[in-house]
Amino acid sequence: MLGRITTQAFNFDQTFQPYRSNDFAWNFFQDPCVKNSLKVLDSSGSWTVLGRDITHVNVKVVPCTKVSVDIFDPIYSNGIVRSTGHIVKCYHEIYPDFDKLRMLLLEEDSDNYHVISPSDRQEFLFRLFKHMVVGGELCQYEDAINPYTETAKMMYKDSVSVQKDPDTKEISVVTTILKVSAHDHGGLCYPSATENDQTFAYLCIDPFKRHVYVLYHSFGIGDFTGY
């Protein structure tokens, strides 16, 4: 994913209401500042800015409720990861050097697919984790799970804001996460003209600080460092 992933920050000056998420996303892409500064990879793999008139925006609200990493606990207790943290390898009919973690993430008919509930699979934290595991076109897969969980936790912490209830002392997430894509007169153009599960753009909206962070990745061949 190196060279094909980026995060940008924008401020907004209006009150954000979650029930108006579609309007927010539409106004975001219509804003001149966004048009002239939102980064996107073109078909040659070069960074450019959006710089085009958007005619339609697709918006999906992504659940974002987790304030701990217990969402990963089932992975450690179902024979997917050894006590050392190393991921158990397994056979795959198509892909060589496959493992049980990717099997759990990608194969709906696998024995362990069910250990992560459908609702948890939709959570932003788990989505980040899955994106990191699956990686880019030139992904060098890790032998241990820790780099994946730690990177997902770091990205989650940087993208999401929380607050503590003064009465109950419970911590809750206040950030709204929107997965977005946009069309111009020629069709789908953002985050890419080509759809892929690893091509994504998330708007991470803090309604109190009035910040929106854009987490973007376009699947393809990026920068590669061998050894």
Main beta-sheet strand count, sense and barrel state: 6 strands, antiparallel
Q: Indicate the radius of gyration in whole angstroms.
A: 19 Å
Shape: globular
Query: How far do the termini sit from each other?
Result: 17 Å
Low-confidence stretches: none
Topology:
Blueprint: E1 5-11, H1 21-30, H2 32-37, E2 39-41, E3 47-49, E4 56-62, H3 73-76, E5 89-90, E6 98-99, H4 100-106, H5 118-122, H6 124-134, H7 146-159, E7 162-164, E8 171-173, E9 176-184, E10 187-190, E11 200-206, E12 211-217
Antiparallel strand pairs: 1-12, 2-3, 4-9, 5-6, 7-8, 9-10, 9-11, 11-12
Helix pairs in contact: 6-7
How is this structure best described in words?
There is one protein chain. By secondary structure, this protein is α+β, with helices and mostly antiparallel strands. Helices cover 25% and strands 25% of the residues. The protein is built from 7 helices and 12 strands. The strands form 4 sheets. Strands 1, 4, 9, 10, 11 and 12 form a 6-stranded antiparallel sheet that branches. A two-stranded antiparallel sheet has the order 2-3. Strands 5-6 form a two-stranded antiparallel ribbon.
